């Protein structure tokens, strides 16, 4: 019995992992692998990771192989605070321009495409690049960064750049929340080790509840040591993120999947979001 657990190496998902009972999971043969979302998405779809946080877009590409753990996500309503388009021109003027996209993302790069193509009717060229604001903007008109790369970039970006929060743009045009990450488990891992998946699930829920109960302290104290910044910034950041996955967040995600499918970014439509233990209707 063992599980390989993926852990997104960005602070946004930390409340789900911070209070995990790592000791007990390790004793039962589990290992935890920290990687950026795009790497975890691939590792999970290749069967190298069994369970963990992944891009919500990656779930849509693997609905036949993955099941979602209920009540867990990284979602945002009016702002996310760590997924930004940095642009040399206002967003309305991006048609015909080139945009560099961070290679660490799957959800946000497709969300940006949906927003620009569907809501602004822009035709834009894209290039995937390693996350680095300065290098990305050398040969491009705009760039998309996520996670801590985006946060750090806001701390040092030039005043001349326009900055757009993708959750705010999505909310403005749809009135819906956006779910960036979900916690998925491979169906073969459920068949093999459902007891351990259950234990891990309860530990995720415990971590989420305890993180909220403690108002994200002492997690923020640790983040300050690693990343710096102001305590007030991190307090505000975590207050703006939602870690539940209620019907409302699911409806927002379904709309995103539908638009991504209509624009050809998903090969198959997502018929339904499959939650572990949920009765199929
Ligand atoms: C909230 C964020 O969401 C992240 C964005 C992801 C993506 O774009 O694929 C994947 C996982 C999330 O942790 C963030 O990057 O800040």
From TrEMBL:
The keyword ATP-binding does not apply. Its EC number is 4.2.1.151. It comes from the Bacteria. Keywords: Lyase, Menaquinone biosynthesis. Pathway: Quinol/quinone metabolism; menaquinone biosynthesis. The gene is mqnA. Catalyzes the dehydration of chorismate into 3-[(1-carboxyvinyl)oxy]benzoate, a step in the biosynthesis of menaquinone (MK, vitamin K2). It catalyses: chorismate = 3-[(1-carboxyvinyl)-oxy]benzoate + H2O. Belongs to the MqnA/MqnD family. MqnA subfamily. It holds the Pfam family VitK2_biosynth. This is Chorismate dehydratase. InterPro entries: Menaquinone_biosynth, MqnA. It comes from Alkalihalophilus lindianensis.
């Amino acid at each position: 019995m063992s599980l390989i657990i993926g852990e997104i190496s960005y602070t946004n998902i930390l409340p789900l992992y911070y209070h995990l009972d790592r000791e007990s999971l390790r004793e039962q043969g589990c290992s935890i692998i920290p990687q950026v979302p795009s790497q975890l998405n691939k590792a999970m779809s290749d069967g190298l990771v069994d369970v963990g946080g992944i891009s919500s877009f990656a779930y849509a590409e693997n609905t036949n192989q993955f099941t979602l753990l209920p009540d867990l996500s990284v979602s945002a309503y009016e702002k996310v605070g760590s997924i930004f388009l940095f642009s040399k021109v206002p967003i309305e003027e991006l048609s015909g321009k080139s945009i560099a996209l961070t290679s660490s993302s799957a959800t946000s790069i497709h969300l940006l495409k949906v927003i620009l193509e569907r809501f602004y009717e822009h035709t834009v060229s894209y290039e995937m690049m390693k996350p680095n604001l300065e290098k990305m903007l050398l040969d491009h008109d705009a760039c998309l960064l996520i996670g801590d790369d985006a946060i750090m970039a806001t701390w040092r970006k030039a005043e001349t750049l326009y900055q757009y929060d993708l959750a705010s743009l999505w909310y403005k045009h749809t009135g819906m929340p956006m779910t960036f990450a979900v916690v998925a488990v491979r169906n073969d891992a459920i068949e093999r080790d459902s007891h351990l998946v259950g234990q891990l699930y309860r530990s995720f829920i415990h971590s989420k509840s305890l993180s909220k109960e403690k108002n994200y302290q002492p997690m923020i104290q640790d983040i300050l040591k690693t990343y710096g910044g102001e305590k007030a910034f991190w307090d505000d950041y975590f207050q703006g993120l939602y870690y539940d996955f209620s019907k409302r967040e699911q409806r927002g995600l379904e709309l995103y999947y539908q638009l991504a499918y209509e624009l050809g970014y998903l090969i198959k439509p997502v018929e339904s979001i499959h939650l572990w233990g949920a009765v199929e209707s």
